[in-house]
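The following block was generated as part of the benchmark described in Methods. Ligand: acetoacetyl-coenzyme A.
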Amino acid sequence: MNIAKVMVIGAGQMGSGIAQVCAMSGYEVILHDLKQEFVDKGLGIIDKNLSRQVEKGKMEEENKRSTLARLTTSTDLRNAADVDLVIEAAIENMDIKAKLFSELDEIAPAHAILASNTSSLPITEIAAATRRPEKVIGMHFMNPVPVMKLVEIIRGLATADEVYAVIAEMSRTLSKVPVEVNDFPGFVSNRILMPMINEAIYTLYEGVASKEAIDEVMKLGMNHPMGPLTLADFIGLDTCLYIMETLHEGFGDDKYRPCPLLRKYVKAGWLGKKSGRGFYEYS
Ligand code: CAA
């Protein structure tokens, strides 16, 4: 299985980052989304990131040009007809993902691997929407994708060993470190990260300390690059809530109960950095 051409579905924060690192590593990339304006926005993020690298002297102008030349855009899923790998980074909704994977199964060539960047939804269930569950796998990148080294690779119940090996190797070509995990709610990353963030929100909710103090304790005391409340804003509070709900439902254990304050913020539309306000305000 040789991977040369990749379709990335979803041109948001994660999808554009994934498309960027794939194109930088020499893959031909199709960045796909529902509307051209979404794809254009994604391309804009990539252009800005690459320009910053050039300004800092970390990338040659020529390298930026060739990276951008390897990127094409799409709003028609039929463009997946000649790709070797699809990496889906669409909205976190099982019905939408199942429909997408079932369509991709019809369109993509028989040899193509279908990967999902889902942060917590079961790969096994996504795979069940296709007739090639052995070629379905989780490739969970971390935000910001161009910077973070990890790709959590999730094996569904039916994922073939060969498919795992191809995807682990492909992740290395992106200068990432693949880590193998099995398919359980939240995998490893979010099973551990989200309860910590949720606990930080409870700490604020119960008045134990101010938001600044909570973040400062974790930054200076534990050497975390961002405090948990800043990180929650960065990830998106709606995403944090969704993952906590997935853990709560998946394990049926109240230790994963989302903090009421998190629910309140999401209901208010305070979704973090992307909406201009979360635990902190952003201009
Ligand atoms: N896109 C691309 N590059 C970015 C970036 C972005 N959004 N943000 C920062 N960078 C780059 C900067 O350009 C800089 O690059 P150089 O070293 O080449 O100059 C580098 O990252 C460091 O940036 P800064 O000096 O501006 O800031 P920093 O040192 O504070 O680092 C950070 C920023 C990397 C985001 C750091 O704060 C960090 O690691 N935060 C934690 C991130 C984290 O935990 N991510 C995982 C979230 S969970 C997830 O993604 C999974 C999920 O399912 C929810």
